[in-house]
């Protein structure tokens, strides 16, 4: 309701003469945000800083989300006080940050992040006159720690919709970049020249996708146009930062749409080169498997359930395995070692691009290993597998593979029944297996034929089946 009202209000007319230095001001009756929607800790941080004589505002995602009737993830504060000055005001504050200093003010489990106003780095002549170069040859900003005033701070932010400042003391919003206009029109638009802003920080391309997916906004056409061409700049970004960004991309509850946008804009291949190659080689199967995994991820997040990043990475990379297993087998490696080696290589290669920490790569391997073990159910093996802490993830992954068309001979259904069966039913199920054939213990041998590539892609894409 309020959001609609906000969208229908005519925006105040900007004084063109002072387009850059005078913000559009939205008074409390011109926007729907109410103080009650804001974390009281965030308000207390702002008021404390203001009482100490500094400028302070709520800024960024929280203002944007409140205008859109979305619950903010967190509340960020922007201030004229330096990190040291902020820390001096609060007992519960810690200065953090490598790229630039920030202050975290702790209130129990809630953290209010306070950042000092910063400015864009000087470019061209201005920069040549300074003795430290802050950009690399592609224009990427290497240091981002120049303090500035409020207006500088607005201009250095990424998107117009992220550059709105809310002052809880008078309930006004300051808009230096026409962000309110873009919120009304559902647009993600970079502040300034898009190519330059992406060159300064290529991660902004990923952020554009993330906000477009999360808010169901379009990327404004000038901001969208350079992405495809500039996507390779992501290569320069440290793998640890990309890991953080990828988690944000896939864990925000809009992973399916995010994935589609990443593919359309040529960014997916920069993040997951092997998966993108699989997508080319085997489009239908690969796309189905990834898509279904992400549908499931989004659903779980909407239901408030936990999602493990390992499962998502396991799914994203799985379609890239068969080609590698095959390559190793063609070099004479037996199936099981080939599978192990392929998994190892693939993860190691992926970690060069995105630094997936060990606490996630281990479970990826375990989920994949489970795929080799789930077909082997004879004797006491089935019960031992049920007790395995990775059983559930392994079983879910099996169903995922089946949903993408992999032929597993009814293995998923079998495990579904087995889990709910009584002891005697279980015994019968195991007996039936060994009566039928020995597939429970030893899946059939994979034939090496010359026309392998032409066979059913689903069967081709089952690295687990090659482990017999
Ligand atoms: P959310 O927290 O909902 O994901 P957000 O907009 O708050 O979205 P953060 O990553 O928390 O995103 O960043 C806070 C603010 O800092 C942004 O709103 C933006 O103004 C600014 N910002 C973040 N990253 C960049 C960047 N790479 N370049 C310029 N400004 C940025
Ligand atoms: Mg935020």
UniProtKB/TrEMBL annotation:
Enzyme Commission (EC) number: 2.7.7.19
Disordered: annotated span: 430-468
Catalytic machinery residues: 74, 76, 158
Biological process according to GO: mRNA processing; polyadenylation-dependent RNA catabolic process
Residue spans of biased composition, Basic residues class: 443-456
Transmembrane segments: none
Biased composition (Basic and acidic residues): 430-439
Domain tRNA nucleotidyltransferase/poly(A) polymerase RNA and SrmB- binding: 216-278
Reaction(s) catalysed by this chain's protein: RNA(n) + ATP = RNA(n)-3'-adenine ribonucleotide + diphosphate
GO molecular function: ATP binding; poly(A) RNA polymerase activity; RNA binding
Keywords for the protein's UniProt record, in alphabetical order: ATP-binding, mRNA processing, Nucleotide-binding, RNA-binding, Transcription, Transferase
Domain of life: Bacteria
Segments forming domain Poly A polymerase head: 56-189
Sequence ranges assigned to domain Polymerase A arginine-rich C-terminal in this UniProt record: 332-452
InterPro entries recorded: NT_sf (IPR043519), PolA_pol_head_dom (IPR002646), PolA_pol_I (IPR010206), PolyA_pol_arg_C_dom (IPR025866), PolyA_RNA-bd (IPR032828), tRNA_ntf/polyA_polymerase_I (IPR052191)
Pfam families registered for this protein in UniProt: PolyA_pol (PF01743), PolyA_pol_arg_C (PF12626), PolyA_pol_RNAbd (PF12627)
PANTHER family linked: POLYNUCLEOTIDE ADENYLYLTRANSFERASE FAMILY PROTEIN
Similarity-based family: Belongs to the tRNA nucleotidyltransferase/poly(A) polymerase family.
Function: Adds poly(A) tail to the 3' end of many RNAs, which usually targets these RNAs for decay. Plays a significant role in the global control of gene expression, through influencing the rate of transcript degradation, and in the general RNA quality control.
Name of the protein this chain belongs to: Poly(A) polymerase I
Organism, scientific name: Pseudomonas segetis
Taxonomic path: Bacteria, Pseudomonadati, Pseudomonadota, Gammaproteobacteria, Pseudomonadales
